[in-house]
Amino acid sequence: MKEVKIGLIGFGTVGRGFAEILVNKKAYFEEKYGFTYRVVGIADLVWGSIHNPDGIDLKKALQLVDNGQKIEELGETGWDSLRLIHESEADVIAEVTPTNLQTGEPGITHIREALRSKKHVITTNKGPIALAYNELKAIADDMGVQLRFEGTVLAGTPALNLAMGPLAGVHFEEVRGIVNGTTNFILTNMETGKTYDEALKEAQRLGYAEAKPDADVEGWDAVAKAVIMANLLFDGHLKPSDVERVGITGLTIEDIEKAKAEGKKWKLIARVWRENGTVKAKVTPEMIGPEDFLYYVNGVTNALVFKTDHLGEVTIVGPGAGRIQTGHALVADLIEIVKSM
Ligand code: HSE
To answer: In the predicted model, is pLDDT for residue 210 greater than 90?
Structure first.
């Protein structure tokens, strides 16, 4: 049976969601896809950094962290992220450290080094893809390995793989949608009478929100996703600072009530389009009515409407955040890599 060796950089919410799916679906993957996996290293600044060429007991690692304990007893210590990337036998590096939209680090360095070491990379980290996609993709191509990042946009809902795979051959004229789960969850909850703070706390408890909620509520997370789509699907060269951005913190209960009275809703809408040959993107709250499909997209659910030349409009709707929902993106990308191995 085919075996893929994985190095896991980051054992936070998403890393553990990914690990949980790997544990629960081991037999299913063997049966259905004819492959198995071995996690040969985990590097995490909080929970410990270990290497175990025989395979780390992931179930035990998850139990230890659930109990607030480090994972160091499960392998040899002294293997930090870069040592794991450079020296381990991993075929695939899963990079799931926290997103930094200013510098992209440490994700950019991890991904660059993994690709240079001829290791495939799967990631949900938006910083490196929003800030350094072209550079990283060129290294991947040079080294003959894959860089896959489905989970950077719409979590495990297949937005990017859909756009790059089954939608290959179309010309994207516009992409418009709801790409942030936390803000859509907050807005939906405020419509039912919850306060902003109550809704935000619940989103954090459910693992939707970024480490710093500003990234969500001020629109930066949606900007990163818009930049990724602009550069990947529209061949743009946008940076986050090129995107017009307004978050949801200026919306009051009165604004929400007023929209409701008019039969409308506030949504944080991301849009990427071409204007006179230039690729543009913006993220702003819009008050929309029932004639707009996005009106019906509530809670942590996200949606994207791809406006294409010869196929017309294609819409994808699904979970936009969550540990298992985002972990799934890594699983889907991993399976694509295994198929090619
Ligand atoms: N904080 C993000 C969201 C997570 O709420 O959409 C998924 O990228």
So the answer is: no
Class of domain 163-319: alpha beta
Q: Which atom of ligand 1 is nearest to the CA of 208?
A: 5
pLDDT at residue number 212: 80
- Is the minimum distance from the CB of 218 to ligand 1 under 6 angstroms? no
Residue minimizing CA distance to atom 7 of ligand 1: 321
State the closest ligand 1 atom to the C-alpha of 179, by its place in the atom list counted from 1. Answer: 6
Closest to 51 in 3D by CA, of 16, 86, 22: 86
Domain boundaries, the chain: 2-156+323-340, 163-319
Distance, CA of 258 to CA of 151 (rounded, Å): 35
- Name the nearest CA neighbour of 324 among 89, 21, 28: 21
Residue range 103-111: average pLDDT? 98
pLDDT band at 273 (very low <50, low <70, confident <90, very high): very high
CA of 221 from ligand 1 middle (Å) equals 7
Average pLDDT score over residue span 239-254: 94
**124 within 8 A of 151, measured Cβ to Cβ:** yes
Active site residue 59: no
- Its CATH architecture, for the domain 2-156+323-340, is 3-Layer(aba) Sandwich (3.40)
Q: Is the peptide bond before 106 cis (omega within 30 degrees of 0)?
A: yes
Looking at the CA of residue 216, tell me the nearest atom of ligand 1: 1
Q: How far is the CA of 179 from the centre of ligand 1 (A)?
A: 8
pTM over 0.90: yes
